[in-house]
């Protein structure tokens, strides 16, 4: 089957740019505030075939151009005949407005990743393709939304108008099943009922609409039409999405946990399309820090390599690096770590090889702002984010050095996979690790301080959580951090769900899964108790009124369907079910189900590369099976080999 | 008056990319075969105003975005009110498909070059504007073609169809004044009658056309409609152009010279629009080598700084440099020289300051391929062009070193204007000049050899012409070159009009204007004798049949309206009338009319910065006047000051 082809990375970069332009707020379009790369405008796509018989083929392009066969020019769209023997097929395509790409199909001649792509400046790479674009009727410049009808579950009169509730979050558009002729109405959207009813201040509103209006794709659960004619309107919602098969399942004896899994899944599916976004209403941008966490969730829910690759490529854009990713220094480094993590999941050496130069150029960009101790410092206009929290950001920050050490470690590992030289990075890493402990470890306080330059010796959870997770802390330091930082009430608590992810991950990693369980029930369970159908960007149990929807100074600024809200999927898969790769691409993997000490029973299926692992627990019996080799079940000190297709039953 | 604004250079880069995609050949679109830059996708345009009273303004954008006034967001298109005092107006605009740009107008608040533009990666520059886009109804993404009706001058039956002759070259489209209903025809275009009548092989053809067809803008003089219904068709042509005022005039006692001036003017006007193109039918691309010469013609015909700037910016694209300009090493260097030449003409320090970093990055790109002698060598895939001629291209070529020396000289001069440091380049230049003579000067042959590495000691006109024109040859060497190379029948003659320009320029520079005169009458006069209404890409008097239209292996591949065909304008203005700047921007200029020794009488007007110089000669009386100060009339050893507004009459 022929596939659409383009210069590799360009589909993702172009669509990523479009994605970062999608955001809308109260009638204003709000493009992301960073430098946006775009695809190449002009490319050559080519392959040589040695044909054993005469062959006819056709070429379709998006853009303008022509086909050259053995130096003879042909029009696109016409049937071209090749003689037996060597045939060099070159498709020249420029697209002044979008992605230049091509599709060709004959008997033998078929565009695909075995074609080459030339940027017209001497850089030739294997052509890019996507499983989403394999038909000549498609156009890789357009997203092929699948549509699903969502009926209205309740419809009631409010303030003289009508409120429609679709019972779930939708990304799509209203569709009127019955509409009074000649009437124009205002359609107010809401993630919450409160928002939809707030005609003045709701985030999305379509004025002067009628049954012919071409509504933009927007996120909503409620629609409110304030005009009295609304009574005569019947509406459904058309949910628009890119289907990504769900391969992870989980159910246990705790109904709340089951609902948390389901709502996490719903949340994550809604945030995943061509890319993994932060949220469906706000920002709809691709953020590296959010993606870093989402990749772990995605691993247990979808196991979809292309989704991860698309998101990584869109985030990274083109060389040269113009600024830190999303303007945030830490986000550049989290992206580098994400590349390594994606390799861990996929074992896809080809993709690693392709993206490696982009990793190096971004790493070098970071290293240009390091001092003689190897510490990364912020330059003017650099955003050293870490977290929304009261951190001591004077001078070089511990959190950034820990991230940098992790980055270097990741790059050293990637280099080893590809057989590339990375001595310089190893040397830097050794020195950096030494200096982190020398400058930031505070023996008296039993943890890493944020900054040594300020003299304040301020301890935060953030730096220490990263030090634990990214293995910068040694075992003794980890134990001390657990006691003196993570379990200390004297250290300011984490208040953002963004860092709550790292905290729960660290706690689970250090064997405190019961505590994690409690926190999941409390935090995510709390949202469910408030009627959440998707998980929110942030949840504060103290807020019960309209202030729940407020964020960043906007009454409806809070995203009620936010990808990082889905992190229970990761915690469940990684720790409760206990599945994780021990060699890239799950060539080898462990099943270390800590959940058996907490839950009475559970069963789950999780994707691994080319297969599925099934784990079920019904006290006292653990059953594990996998359709791929390489598995080991770990129970305490003991481990058991898992044979493909064979079910392992263990009594605990 | 408010102007449309954008990130500086982006309008030119984006439109230049579109221009390089315009080419068409026999139903195929043919984008240029080099790397194409495009504009930024996402920018911030801003200015602070201190208002003394309340002010209302509106913003229009091309793309998506919003307006932020003192941190408060507003919709584009709405009336925004500012209070007295400090007001920071920021327009955020992304354009996923084209040029992001904005227009704002209130009483005081008006977009213009006093606004700033941010690339969202920390590079802030003065906003770009164009005299062509000063109305809110315009869209800088579209070209505002002016249309002129061109009547058909003859219409005759040929081979059962009809041939329409418009008597002149047109860039535009057919317009049917009378058309038989329900009929579809084939419209064959031709620069020549032969081409239009060649239904199979003509360059442009519109099949299945009727009176509703939206014809593309194309170059033609003739149209042929082969169908018998053509008899019922009456057509005119709609010529589409960007008006650029002609400020240069010339007339003399030699009618042939007068016609050469007029046809040169016609040719050059047709090739000039947003940019100076090579030709109107083929390639319609922006070539640096062609532009280098065209800038000199433009100086005497239009004196239009913006046209030159647009062409320079479109050619150069964005940093980093991805490849040599138009893929040709010499064209990179000719571009650098063109920047200096444009400054010489305009004295526009602001533009020089803006473009200087692009000059340096391109120069550095060239210098990366130099050896220990300072010589530039070709790398694999580099195109060392010089000329279509039998040159000895082994190893480092003399012609390239001469160009490089000229480039370095130009950059040193530009740096001096801007008060920038350029010692390194001066040092390189000294060394390079020394080495050129040491390695390439052949005392025995009395000229520079093409290559010293081959051992062939091959002498060509090309290297020596550049050595003379770019002042690499000293006076003694120049004299020797004139005798032993330029006037030697043993050295292969120049065969391309591209290098004929350099040859005539060098001859004129060395006082051989009479010879130049003869060659102009012979070469350009020859084309007139063949019925040319515009000057051709190439002219060989020996060709008289259909082979005249052939080039590059294509029966109609020769461009019959080619910018470099207009070089008599330069030769006339520069040498016959003798006008040239001696300080940047014609702050000081000379009038050294060598034409008085050749022509009985002539009179001409030529543009200088902010003014016009009038020169007329009627044996024995020379009359010169200028409306700007700084002029000096030079006659042999004597010179006379020219006062603004005062006519200087001299008896010779």
UniProtKB/TrEMBL annotation, chains A, B:
<feature type="domain" description="Alpha-rhamnosidase-like N-terminal">
    <location>
        <begin position="47"/>
        <end position="224"/>
    </location>
</feature>
<feature type="domain" description="Alpha-L-rhamnosidase six-hairpin glycosidase">
    <location>
        <begin position="248"/>
        <end position="574"/>
    </location>
</feature>
<dbReference type="InterPro" id="IPR035398">
    <property type="entry name" value="Bac_rhamnosid_C"/>
</dbReference>
<protein>
    <submittedName>
        <fullName>Alpha-L-rhamnosidase</fullName>
    </submittedName>
</protein>
<feature type="domain" description="Alpha-L-rhamnosidase C-terminal">
    <location>
        <begin position="578"/>
        <end position="631"/>
    </location>
</feature>
<dbReference type="Pfam" id="PF21209">
    <property type="entry name" value="Bac_rhamnosid-like_N"/>
</dbReference>
<dbReference type="Pfam" id="PF17389">
    <property type="entry name" value="Bac_rhamnosid6H"/>
</dbReference>
<dbReference type="InterPro" id="IPR012341">
    <property type="entry name" value="6hp_glycosidase-like_sf"/>
</dbReference>
<dbReference type="InterPro" id="IPR048932">
    <property type="entry name" value="Rhamnosid-like_N_bacteroidetes"/>
</dbReference>
<dbReference type="GO" id="GO:0005975">
    <property type="term" value="P:carbohydrate metabolic process"/>
</dbReference>
<dbReference type="Pfam" id="PF17390">
    <property type="entry name" value="Bac_rhamnosid_C"/>
</dbReference>
<dbReference type="InterPro" id="IPR008928">
    <property type="entry name" value="6-hairpin_glycosidase_sf"/>
</dbReference>
<dbReference type="InterPro" id="IPR035396">
    <property type="entry name" value="Bac_rhamnosid6H"/>
</dbReference>
